[in-house]
Automatic annotation (TrEMBL):
GO cellular component: acetolactate synthase complex
Record's protein name: 3D-(3,5/4)-trihydroxycyclohexane-1,2-dione hydrolase
Cofactor(s) needed by this chain: thiamine diphosphate; Mg(2+)
Residues where thiamine diphosphate binds: 65
Gene from which the chain derives: iolD
Reactions accelerated catalytically: 3D-3,5/4-trihydroxycyclohexane-1,2-dione + H2O = 5-deoxy-D-glucuronate + H(+)
Species per Swiss-Prot/TrEMBL record: Alicyclobacillus acidoterrestris (strain ATCC 49025 / DSM 3922 / CIP 106132 / NCIMB 13137 / GD3B)
Pathway: Polyol metabolism; myo-inositol degradation into acetyl-CoA; acetyl-CoA from myo-inositol: step 3/7
Family to which the UniProt record says this protein belongs: Belongs to the TPP enzyme family.
Domain Thiamine pyrophosphate enzyme TPP-binding, first and last residues per copy: 439-591
Annotated region (Thiamine pyrophosphate binding), positions in chain: 441-521
GO molecular function: 3D-(3,5/4)-trihydroxycyclohexane-1,2-dione hydrolase activity; acetolactate synthase activity; flavin adenine dinucleotide binding; magnesium ion binding; thiamine pyrophosphate binding
A Pfam family assignment: TPP_enzyme_C
Lineage: Bacteria, Bacillati, Bacillota, Bacilli, Bacillales
Length: 636
């Protein structure tokens, strides 16, 4: 056996350089680079190994572990899970900061390699700096908190453990059915320890992303279900996008007259202008999609997890008559809602199904066209809303009085409604730009109103809906698509929570554009709170003496070295967007919008935990409404 003497960390970096992926006849390196924040736990191990020989790996210095990990997640999501970044952190707080991002990767099924440093394997200097001391076990470290949010988790306390650990991690990350975060915690002393590694371990390894084919039984069952249905709909989920099933979806939809409805993750698999695409379904869906869903007698779920937002908390369908046909690479997902399971790749399955459905045609007839037309008229209305100082009725009704709305208009010096601003952006930026969002009221507005015409240009993290993903993720998208303009659409709350990687984007010349919607508050939560009978309680950003907070975000961005703008009219917004496009450096547009001017629900319902007992009649009424809705909801 030929061996090579390396430290654990040097072996790790050499191995990462040799991982390739093979997809649809193309082969390329799987690991693009490494995000780093060095501390004493990783600088002398992984830091030394990277300095000595990083190979083809790009190195990006992050500013916040959560932020850089979000960037890595977004990179992988944008590259349709075919390429990853690794993320190395120091021990203790550095690794703890990964937990939120790992949850984000896990909920969205995104592969990413986390490499948090761990405490000393030898335990000789225990307790070391940043080591928690757990009374019931010396074996527990901060990194155990990453176990529930990792699809694969391991601790390496001896150099030779690295080999089996890495092989397992890459098997998990390159399997579409299991894809998610892999976490390998390397003890800080072990990282620098040398070992005679078998040279074969470092040979080029190709991971095949073969499309799993459906069985004859599955195909026969699926085609029978479709041919026996009268009003089927196709629910396009994230799995359809990762499988790049857009063309076959359109062909089937057109030929058999089956409407398409989309989840957040599925949007931009098929262009919005496609005649049978009725847009988003569920809580943040369009009226068109929600009406079609209610009428459907067969839901063909393609790569969907059927989350509460997609199913309106299991009330979106007529469960008395609707059946489910679930096409998914994951058995876990395919089993949902008692569906007929086809555990296979989306594109391969749909292509195999096509000849079996023959000349089937749904009963939807002209209805698809009419539903779409009706929705486009509603979108047009939302595009041209004008605020008035008297008798203004915002989309979110009966929550803020005219007086309070005027107070916001004065404090933020704006009369701009959010829907008007959003559609103006959609009309202005190039259609091949990539937009990203994650939390707050914007995801709902985007799913309903954003028209996407180019595949994979709509990047919504709505599995975890993690505030702080937007700006960080924009950096990851830019790393994935250097030639495209990237726009992070972010609320003021989310921006304040985390935007550290904005600086990273400027520092390394990866231009991103931040479109900050400032309504001075946690707007969507204020809506939720008041809709369910509470008062306005700590969701607005008000000072101790009840003044509305007005932050100059443009100035903050300028401080980082970005080009920034202020916009409170459509004209200012469009001018800023045009100028921002010409810039080489990252930009931020501070868009002041009025609260309560985002879109409302369209025939949807969200099951949230309303108080059963309260001192307010309005809350008791909300509780009663919930009980009534639960009677309609399917239980599992
Ligand atoms: C990390 C994290 N913390 C808390 C939440 C809960 N949450 C969801 S939206 C929201 C407020 C968002 O405010 P903002 O970004 O200003 O958006 P707006 O609703 O005002 O448009 C909060 C606190 C979350 N999604 N993520
Ligand atoms: O609680 C929430 C409410 C949603 O409207 C929002 O988009 C999401 O970020 C969230 O966490
Ligand atoms: Mg806000």
């Amino acid at each position: 056996m030929k061996t090579v003497r390396l430290t654990t960390a040097q072996a790790l970096i050499r191995f990462l350089n040799q991982q390739y992926i093979h997809v649809d006849g193309h082969e390329f390196p799987f690991v693009e680079g490494v995000f780093t924040i060095f501390g004493h736990g990783n600088v002398l191990g992984i830091g030394q190994a990277l300095e000595q020989d990083a190979g083809h790996l790009k190195i990006i210095q992050g500013k916040n572990e959560q932020g850089m990990a979000h960037a890595a997640v977004a990179f992988s999501k944008q590259r349709l899970r075919q390429k990853i970044y690794a993320v190395t952190t120091s021990v203790g707080p550095g690794s703890a900061n990964l937990v939120t991002a790992a949850g984000t990767a896990m909920a969205n099924n995104i592969p990413v390699l986390f490499l948090p440093a761990d405490t000393f394997a030898t335990r000789q200097p225990d307790p070391v700096l940043q080591q928690i001391e757990q009374e019931y076990s010396a074996a527990v470290t901060t990194n155990d908190s990453l176990k529930p949010v990792s699809r694969y988790w391991d601790r390496v306390t001896r150099p030779e453990q690295l080999m089996s650990s890495l092989i397992r991690a890459f098997e998990v990350m390159t399997d579409p059915a299991k894809a998610g975060p892999a976490t390998i915690c390397i003890a800080q002393d072990t990282a620098g320890e040398a070992f005679d590694f078998d040279e074969r371990f470092f040979a080029k390894r190709v991971h095949y992303l073969d499309r799993k084919l459906p069985t004859d039984r599955e195909l026969h069952g699926a085609s029978e279900l479709i041919r026996c249905s009268r009003k089927p709909i196709i629910l396009v989920g994230g799995g359809a996008k990762y499988s790049q099933a857009g063309d076959i979806l359109k062909r089937l939809s057109e030929k058999h007259h089956i409407p398409l409805v989309e989840t957040q993750a599925g949007k931009s698999t098929v262009e919005s202008s496609f005649s049978n695409n009725l847009g988003g379904i569920g809580i943040t869906g369009t009226l068109a999609a929600n009406k079609a869903a209610r009428e459907a007698d067969l839901i063909i779920g393609v790569g969907t997890r059927y989350t509460d937002f997609a199913t309106s908390s299991k009330t979106a369908f007529n469960f008395d008559k609707a059946r489910f046909l679930n096409i998914n690479v994951s058995r876990l997902q395919a089993y949902k809602l008692d569906g007929f399971q086809v555990v296979a790749d989306a594109k391969a399955t749909l292509e195999a199904l096509a000849p079996l459905i023959k000349d089937y045609r749904s009963d939807f007839g002209e209805e698809i066209r009419e539903l779409k037309k009706e929705w486009l008229a509603e979108r047009n209305r939302l595009k041209s809303i004008q605020f008035t100082r008297k008798d203004f009725v915002p989309e979110i009704k009966e929550q803020f009085s005219q007086e309070v709305l005027n107070e916001y208009a004065d404090a933020l010096r704006t009369e701009l409604p959010q829907t008007t601003a959003l559609i103006a952006i959609n009309d202005t930026i190039a259609s091949d730009s990539v937009v990203i969002s994650a939390a707050g009221s914007l995801p709902g507005d985007l799913q309903r109103l954003w028209h996407t015409e180019v595949p994979n240009t709509y990047h919504l993290e709505y599995g975890y809906s993690c505030m702080g993903y937007e700006v960080s993720g924009a950096l990851g998208i830019k790393l994935a698509n250097r030639d495209k303009e990237v726009y992070a659409l972010v609320g003021d709350g989310s921006f304040l929570l985390l935007h550290s990687e904005f600086l990273t984007s400027i520092q390394f010349g990866y231009k991103i554009n931040v479109l900050l919607f400032d309504n001075s508050g946690f707007g969507c939560i204020s809506n939720l709170q008041m809709e369910n009978g509470s008062g306005s309680f700590y969701c607005e950003f008000r000072t101790f003496d009840n003044q509305i907070v007005n932050v100059d975000y443009a100035k903050i961005a300028e401080g980082y070295g970005a080009k920034s703008y202020r916009a409170s009219t459509v004209e200012e917004l469009k001018a800023a967007l045009d100028d921002a496009k010409q810039q080489e450096v990252s930009t931020l547009i501070d868009i002041k919008v009025l609260p309560k001017t985002m879109t409302d629900g369209y025939d949807s319902w969200w099951n949230v935990g309303v108080a059963e007992i309260s001192n307010k009649e309005s809350i008791q009424q909300a509780f009663e409404r919930r009980i009534q809705m639960l009677r309609r909801a399917r239980q599992y």
